[in-house]
């Protein structure tokens, strides 16, 4: 009935193409860089448990909703929301949800590309044999030397933004499908190699216990918010990236089963990364809460002391940069698709413009690790990078996700979502609808309210 809703930017060639692209968006620095360090900072097991709960009860249902809205709207998030609001007969103000996502995407891009730049820098270090025989102290020195040099960070940041702009300007589907197809499995294999190394480090059990033995005494309210925010960040939810990818999805594809595949892949990569990193942390007497440098200060030790480490190390950081690349592309896509649709600019110019905005904002993150790291440049004890990360991941994405859930659950007609999901009035559909109407929105709201101290349970 809606076959006429063709998308002006083209369509994925198959269900697998979409799965690969969406997994490419989901799996990135969030899994390998961020998940381990925030797990370390927030005490381990209890945090991981809350994070997994958020993935299941909030992330997965909202991902279904977001893909569904994208496919039904068949446009960039801003226009899709305007169109759907019109179709469902509700206020056009819902398009603000699209705007919210465009802003969040560019803000995230600004710091994301700086960290991705670290991964690029580490490719060179790995290939040059810098990791050979490395111990904890040298690993720390190598990392500190990199982040304390704004010029080097700027060079890598620039390179990464340019890489992203190039791919986005050529259209998302073209190169992405083929690249992700081999990259994901290889990344998975290297993580397994690393977990194998960690198993022999003598401290595997300590790592395992840290990650999976919950001790709720070590989890603060703040930690709960961070776990929830990360469930959005890691699945690329709440800002339109998955919505815009969904808009290129064929109507014959099952949104539900596709979502399960993506969420499972994303979660396993994060858990494997943790399993590789924490045993090394304990074997070398490092603090698990070392912060954003954690991955870069631990894995080089493993590579430096395993056979074939130069090869595996180089490959690993190439793939990490690659995984970041396929994610940053999706951060830009909502803005770019909107510029192309509404302002008649070419994809190339739209991508270049978005890239430049992200690049300039990225300077704030670069300086957060060196010239602006001190007290005078902080707000509430947070650097520019901390603030950007906090505001986007813990506030903007969950709020965007909340609005998506409310729209899909309450403002969209039951018949519309049932038609779009294509599984009839099944138990699965009814279960999803219940969760998206009651469970996810209530949980998100509770976490927010707890935080502002309006509601206290103790
Ligand atoms: N999901 C990506 C990661 O985990 C980051 C991302 C967030 C990408 C939001 C797109 C949108 O690295």
Please tell me what the overall shape is: globular
Q: What is the CATH top level name? A: Mainly Alpha
Gyration radius, to the nearest Å?
Answer: 21 Å
Can you give the mean pLDDT?
92
- Put simply, the count of helices is 18
N to C succession of SSEs: HHHHHHHHHHHHHHHHHH
Structure characterization notes:
The chain is mostly helical and 458 residues long. It has a single domain, classed as Up-down Bundle (Amino acid/polyamine transporter I), CATH 1.20.1740. Helices cover 76% and strands 0% of the residues. It contains 18 helices and no strands. The longest helix is centred in the last third of the chain and has 35 residues. Bound molecules: phenylalanine.
Question: What's the gist of this structure?
Answer:
With 458 residues, this protein is an all-alpha fold. It has a single domain (15-105, 147-294, 326-451), classed as Amino acid/polyamine transporter I. It is built from 18 helices and no strands.
């Amino acid at each position: 009935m809606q076959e006429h809703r063709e998308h002006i930017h083209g369509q994925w060639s198959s269900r697998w193409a979409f799965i690969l692209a969406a997994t490419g968006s989901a799996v990135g620095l969030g899994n390998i860089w961020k998940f381990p360090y925030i797990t370390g900072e927030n005490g381990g097991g209890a945090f991981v448990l809350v994070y997994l709960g958020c993935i299941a009860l909030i992330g997965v249902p909202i991902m279904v909703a977001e893909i569904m809205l994208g496919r039904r709207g068949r446009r960039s998030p801003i226009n899709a929301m305007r169109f759907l609001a019109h179709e469902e007969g509700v206020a056009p103000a819902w398009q603000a949800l699209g705007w919210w996502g465009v802003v969040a995407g560019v803000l995230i891009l600004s710091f994301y590309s700086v960290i991705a730049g670290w991964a690029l820098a580490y490719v060179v270090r790995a290939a040059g044999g810098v990791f050979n025989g490395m111990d904890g102290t040298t690993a720390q020195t190598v990392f500190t030397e990199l982040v304390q040099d704004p010029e080097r960070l700027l060079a890598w940041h620039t390179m990464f933004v340019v890489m992203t702009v190039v791919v986005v300007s050529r259209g998302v589907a073209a190169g992405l499908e083929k690249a992700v197809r081999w990259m994901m499995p290889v990344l998975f294999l290297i993580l397994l190699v690393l977990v194998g190394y960690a198993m022999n480090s003598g401290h595997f059990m300590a790592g395992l216990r840290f990650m999976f033995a919950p001790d709720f005494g070590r989890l603060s309210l703040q930690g709960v918010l961070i776990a929830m925010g990360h469930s959005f960040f890691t699945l690329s939810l709440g800002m339109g990236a998955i919505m815009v990818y969904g808009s290129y999805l064929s109507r014959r594809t099952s949104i539900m089963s596709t979502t399960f595949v993506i969420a499972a892949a994303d979660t396993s990569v994060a858990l494997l990364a943790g399993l590789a990193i924490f045993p090394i942390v304990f074997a070398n007497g490092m603090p698990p809460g070392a912060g954003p440098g954690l991955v870069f200060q631990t894995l080089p030790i493993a590579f430096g002391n395993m056979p074939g480490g130069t090869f595996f190390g180089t490959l690993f950081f190439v793939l990490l940069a690659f995984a970041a690349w396929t994610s940053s592309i999706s951060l830009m896509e909502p803005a770019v698709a909107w510029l192309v649709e509404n302002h008649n600019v070419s994809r190339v110019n739209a991508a270049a413009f978005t890239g430049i905005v992200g690049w300039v904002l990225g300077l704030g993150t670069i300086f957060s690790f060196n010239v602006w790291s001190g007290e005078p440049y902080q707000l509430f004890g947070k650097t520019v990078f901390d603030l950007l990360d906090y505001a986007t991941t813990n506030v903007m994405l969950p709020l965007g996700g909340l609005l998506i859930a409310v729209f899909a659950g309450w403002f969209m007609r039951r018949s519309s979502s049932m038609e779009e999901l294509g599984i009839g009035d099944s138990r699965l559909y009814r279960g999803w609808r219940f969760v998206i109407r009651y469970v996810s929105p209530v949980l998100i709201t509770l976490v927010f309210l707890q935080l502002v101290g309006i509601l206290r349970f103790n």
